[in-house]
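Note to self: the last two entries modelled the partners one at a time, which told us nothing about the interface. This time every component goes in together.
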Amino acid sequence: MNDKEQSLTQPLLTLSSVGLSIHGSPILHNISFELHAGKTLGIIGESGSGKSMTALSIMQLLPRGSTVHGDIHFDGHKLNSLDEVSLCQLRGSDIGMIFQEPMTALNPVKTIGEQVSESVRLHRRLSRVEADLVTLKTLARVGLPNAEFPLSRYPHELSGGQRQRVVIAIAVACQPKLLIADEPTTALDVTTQAAILTLLDELKKEHGLALLLISHDLAVVSNMADDIVVMNNGKLVESGTIESVFNHPREPYTRMLFEASALNRVQQPAGAEPIPPINSHPLLSVSDLVCEYPVPRETLFSKARSFRAVDRVSFDIHKGESMGLVGESGCGKSTLTRALLGLMPLHSGSIVLAGESVSAQQAVSRAARRRMQVVFQDPYGSFNPRHKVVKLVSEPLHLLDSKLSERERIVRVDEALIRVGLSSLDKGKYIHEFSGGQRQRIAIARSLIVMPDIIILDEAVSALDVSIRASVLELLTQLAKQHGLAYLFISHDLDVVRRVTDRVLVMRHGQFVECGQTRDVLTNPQHAYTKELIAATPKLNYFSTNDLR
Amino acid sequence: MLRFVLTRLMSLLATLVVASCIVFFVIEVVPGDPASFMLGINAQPDTLAALRAELGLDVPKWQRYLHWTGGMLSGDFGTSYTYRTPVANMIADRLWISLPLALFALALSTLIALPVGLWAASRRGSYADSVVMGFTQLGVAIPNFWFALLLVMLFAIKLGWFSAGGFAGWDAGAFAAMKSLMLPAIALALPQAAILTRVMRSSLLDVMNEDYIRTARAKGLSVRQVLLKHALRNALIPVLTIIGLQFSFLIAGAIIIENVFFLPGLGRLIFQSIAQRDLIVVESVVMLLVFAVVIITFLVDVAYAWVDPRLRQANR
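The predicted structure of the combined assembly is written out below.
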């Protein structure tokens, strides 16, 4: 009994003045917090704030050359002075951890059964058969029943959400006291995210374990956590119960973070009613579009089959209009984008851009390519790292009919950079010298330089931190007003779509299940799937915009 | 898995057909008439014609191609222009030296490289790692014939443990035969082992940076357990590729080492046949080597699929 009483008062995990430096450069400064059994602590912060490093310090799985100062106490052990053998006994047994990227978190050459039971057999002295029984039970508990998901499955045969369930099964198989979840749902769709978060919450309640939930998403944390820690630049900015921090943030950084997140949720001002004139010709017109992929043949002689990724979709976008396209991964968004860009052969149907038809089967004219530009999700991967910004941004200029002189090119690049809020001095730099938000601005500058009529934004702000995301969205809205740009805004994030689009298309299994004015669709969804999507999107609790003003 | 193997076999057959066409017609267009080479420059035209008819050189090329490939399928590789003996016998004799030598060298290099690479990877950045890497650098740089001469000087001349060259023959017993292949195999294996060690080490280090290694560490596995249970199998794919390439090289490319050790192997046979315009021998040996390379590639493909479950489906 005494033991139990103690566990109620004594925190399970205590960090006191923890600092971390890697090869001499400081990463974390003076981090202190406590976590009690049965509670959830949320760590919130933008990329580079030191959230993950804090988690890895607790696990003592830091990169080479790391030194930890201060104390990390867990359940009577001082973790940062334990020897490796004792740490191996704690990891996986008393502390479980879940990672961000489910697609790569599992060993591709081992079955899911092997990977879960390995953890069980390592920490519990069980025979293979007994361990398999525990594995079956654990996998069934995380939502992978044996009937559908036998132990002999390999990771590549599972979806991202299912893989994350396997990772969770590995983490909880030995019933740990502490579960660390580092951005466990960031790589997942909203409905999958909701299911995984529910599962984590249930597991926490069933086993009375302590959950350390790391996320950049305030809404996710606000729904799950009892206490919250806000981090920035390796320092602890603010901590406290979720109610106190959310309702009365003391630090300017916390306020800024909340405002930026809240901006996404602000309704469009009623004055802006950019409903296009019905009679005008649409800028982009897609009708009955079908795109198919060949499926590998079962045998050499079986009939070739194909998978219909986009199934008879039609829509128009008018000049100056912003159209949203939402749907989960695999719904056909990317195929549709590829088809619009003329990179994907059309099976049937048509795409007409300003009177000219676009398809991969025929050469798309330069004029059409100039009219339509694209900004992709990964602001780093979409640039050649060996070119300077001036070359990257001026690349689309060859689409113009007349060849520009070197001076004119430079002038254009300067203009484009200034328009997206950068300076003309930036053109001599390389892409790695910029932050994620700046890179995305450069991508936008690159698409603006040829004065397009429409820009396709394919998850263009998904990889950005909330504060930067807010400023990029602000920029896009401004540019649309100034230049009469149309956008096709592809996103899985309903809040982003709500903020910047006039109309929205909801896509599922290659078809549009709903379309209409963004405000109507999101406030009064008609189709069951749209309702499901909206319900799954985490809401920012405890918090109203009025509190800030 | 079975389907995977079958489709691979089909493509293997197709490769062989294409390769045989290329080998035959490329060698046919090379200047140099075997009959006039055999008879010398003063040969009478009618003797020349008679010899050409006897060798079967007077019929159209496509007929000779069919005759040649048909013969090979039934084990008849034709008769050597120079020695007037069946090519099949000549090749068989040589193969019994070249194949064991290649296997021996490959086994040596793999047995050295995999553990040493693993060991170096597990001690990345340490003194031991630097020493191993230094030695592999040396192993890649040293020409193998020179290393072979050093081996001969030490083990054959100075210590007298092995003979300096020649082949005892399998009739003298497996031990004696293997003993005479020992020094050549070591000489062949050294540079291969050096390359393979480096590939093994760097492949392991790449894999150790993967996310699933972190997952395995979070399970409570020690660094060593992670290396053996999770990293090793994933790191084998590039290693298998190199092993396959090396074996192909060892079968055909041992010419210099065979010369240093006076071994009557395939490499020497092809070398001599080219010099003597013994085209039928050249064609047959080249075809045999193509066959060996294709088979090895097939085995490597099967090994990939065995190592990586994703490939079993991807190649359906």
